Each structure stands twice: as C-alpha cells, then as structure tokens.
C-alpha cells in the first residue's frame, strides 16, 4: 500500500483509501447504538459482502452491547471491483489483514482496541490482523476460519466453480455484489491455484495473545474441525464451539448459539475493549 492519505465520502456509506497506489472505495455500514461502547469489526467470507451478513450484525451488536462496523473488501459488494484481469496471489489474505483493514480503520478514525468478528476467509484475515497488531485487537470471534488448505476445501470450491458456470449462482450473487464476476473469480481462482495448496497461517498466528472464540459446524463442507482445533493447540486461550447440525455458516445455521458464546466472551473482557470512532 502506498501512502497514508484517506478520505471519507458519502457519509458512512463509502470510504476511499489509497491501496497499492490507486484509490479504492470501500463500502461501509455502521450498526448498533453509538456512544462509549466496544467496537466490533465484521470481516466477511470469501463470497460475502456487507449485504450478505443480512441482519446478523445488528442482532449480535444488540445482544452484546457493541457498535458494529461492517465493510466489503475490495472486489466485493459495492466496493471497487477487482480489475478485470487481476489475479490474486497466495498472500491475498495477509494483504487484506495488514494493509486494507488498517487503512480503513485510519480513514474512519478508529482507535485501538477493537474486537474482530470474521467468517471463513474473513476469519483467517481476523487472525492475521490480530497477529500483526497484537496490541490493537481486544479479542476475536472467528467462524469456520482457515489456517491451512484441506482437500475438502478444494473439492467444495471446485464444485462452486461448476455451479457458477452452470446454474443461477451468478444471478444470486449479483444481489450482493455490483460485479459478481469480480467477487467470484478473485476468490475461486486463487483457492484453486496450485500455488495456494501449501498456504498456511499456522505459524503466523503464534503472536496472538488476545481472547479468542473459534466456531465451526460439524457439517462444514469447506473444512474439518482441524481448522479450529489447530488454533487451540497453538493458542491455549482459545475457546472452541463445535456445533452439530451446522455447516460452513454458523451465524446462519445456529445464530443463537453463536450470539450466546460471543456475548460470554465479550462480557468476560468488557473493561479491555473500548475504542473510539472519530468519523461516522
């Protein structure tokens, strides 16, 4: 990322940052009551966006007494699409964690500490951000995160490619993304790239010292329980929640259980998680 200058545009709907020497507009939504409350930053899945979270962030923020910040990463939702022929490199999640998210928080005037709530790729990005900025993150909840590439993930992502090319999946994604090809092919191509098979953040996360809650469904079609159990082996402060009758999206399949566990985690560390938002 080149430079530090960022501006807020269109109230709280779009934030312009400078990333890799080019301006990028980030779709942003604030939820929850303002005031002296902990801030919870939501990081979406590999095909997600602000809109795809639906009402869950509002429900969670109301339950735990937080202010919520939801955003769409570049290439997703209403944010600047991926350039037409741009292919992501295996470090794409590191770049989101170490470049894009810090630039967005600076643009919004968000001061540490803050909490992170990440799903799937967003969960991995949350872990990488907490590892890179250990003093800034008060704690994190990660749903179905990836810490290494498993065959089950590759097989399901290959099946998603077939569905995108042969079914109405493209049309369904168009409800949530200005450019569904930008969102889908950025994610799909890198996950199926042979260079990505050796991707792992198992060593990267060793510097995390904040409280963690790692959640995974027993029926997750994109990863096994090794993903969250691997986190717990390396980070003993991790609380695990393994949910039956639950696939890759615990916040959709088992929202009550996720909210209850997140509320318990945050309430146990309430005094450690004040942050300030200078811009709305």
TrEMBL record:
Signal peptide: none annotated. Keywords: Hydrolase. It comes from the Bacteria. GO terms for molecular function: hydrolase activity. InterPro entries: AB_hydrolase_1, AB_hydrolase_fold. Residues 40-261 form the AB hydrolase-1 domain. This is Alpha/beta hydrolase. It comes from Thiomonas arsenitoxydans (strain DSM 22701 / CIP 110005 / 3As).
